[in-house]
Amino acid sequence: MTDKGVGILGVGSALPGRIVTNTDLEKTLDTSDEWIQSRTGIRERRIAEEGIVTSDLCTEAAHKALENAGITVDEIDLIIVATVTPDSPLPATACYVQAKMGAFKAAAFDIAAGCTGFIYALAVGSQFIKSGIYKNVLVIGAEILSRILDWTDRSTCVLFGDGAGAVVLGPVPAGQGLLSFKLGADGSLADMLCVPAGGTRMPACPESVEGRQHYVRMSGNETFKFAVRVMGDVTSQALDELGLTKDDLDFLIPHQANLRIIEAARKRFELPEERVMVNIDRYGNMSSASIPVALEDAVSTGRLKRGDLVSLVGFGAGLTWGAVIMRY
Ligand code: ACO
Fold it and tell me: What is the mean predicted confidence (pLDDT) over 52-65?
């Protein structure tokens, strides 16, 4: 065990160049820019070009994070990729990333915890440093959700986008960096947000393809109510662990699923708009990638400052939820 803290040494992101606006979607779906913006806050999203795979976005984001941290590929001890859209079911996408980066000294594995994946991965990665086993851990959240969306289902396909965000974790002085984690799950609610087929429960077959069972299914309304409650509760619990309250919080980086969910959290923590990171308007919900992309955005635009007490908080398929409190 080290007495030092574990913190974020560098950040990076990768976003496909292709922009799909709500107006573009109006051409193929019974939807409108007005409906999507007023219900979700989304104006446009990025969609990966054919041929681009999740590990490509991971690798681009990771190289930027390494550069930002001033660390070389050889100094990475472990690569963790949080994703629900791996390159393929086997092997882990992190292994493809390791090979693409030439980071052959690094161990590599994936974590799947829905949109909370990046928070779970931060929690896991930081333990390897805290325990003294590793020094530098690359944690990536990445998705190409556009490949598992039913583009004829207006209740889901308008919500999501593609992208990747990465951070380098490493030792920092005690009292700085990642200070507390709170993770949770309720597997009895798994069917609220899932892809029914493609695993052992329903292996791929002509019927599963015909029944469109390989695409995301979601009970939007129930997920919404759950999210509003859990985002606030889990952040409060993570603050409690440190003996802190909402008055100590300087900045909030929430999962970007719906602007109304983010607004509810902002009001609960009585934060002004400029202290809550929002980029759902430009990117939609990128699942595991939303939080690290929002973090990179907050850092590169100077909105998040060194020394700020910040909460990263998410919820997602599983159902899962989690928050981290960090002294940036
Ligand atoms: N365009 C136009 N109309 C639509 C659309 C659309 N894209 N989608 C649904 N509608 C219609 C519905 O059919 C319904 O019509 P009806 O009343 O005639 O039946 C009406 O709009 C209202 O539908 P609701 O589902 O009640 O709309 P709501 O205000 O709840 O918004 C939404 C739906 C945006 C999905 C919301 O419930 C939500 O954001 N839920 C949370 C989703 C979420 O957070 N997911 C997280 C995923 S995390 C992860 O791990 C991937």
Answer: 98
Q: How many CA atoms lie within 13 A of 50 on its CB side?
A: 0
CATH of domain 5-174: 3.40.47.10
Which of 3.40.47.10, 3.40.50.300, 3.90.1150.10, 3.40.50.360 would CATH assign to domain 178-327?
3.40.47.10
Domain ranges of the chain: 5-174, 178-327
Active site residue 95: no
Give the pLDDT band of residue 118 (cuts 50, 70, 90). very high
From 144, 155, 261, 280, the mutation candidate for ligand 1 (largest count of ligand atoms within 8 A of CB) is 155
Q: Are 199 and 84 in contact (CB under 8 A)?
A: no
Place of tokens 């393929």: 88
Q: Of 115, 157, 194, 279, which residue is the catalytic one?
A: 115
Helices 117-130 and 290-300 pack at an angle, to 10 degrees, of 70
Tens of pLDDT, residue by residue over 254-285, are 999 999 999 999 999 999 999 999 999 999 99
Whole-prediction pTM: 0.96
Q: Whose CA is nearest to atom 42 of ligand 1?
A: 220
CB-based pocket (< 6 A), ligand 1:
31, 35-36, 39-40, 114-115, 154-155, 158, 193, 218, 220-221, 223-224, 227, 257-258, 285, 287, 316-317
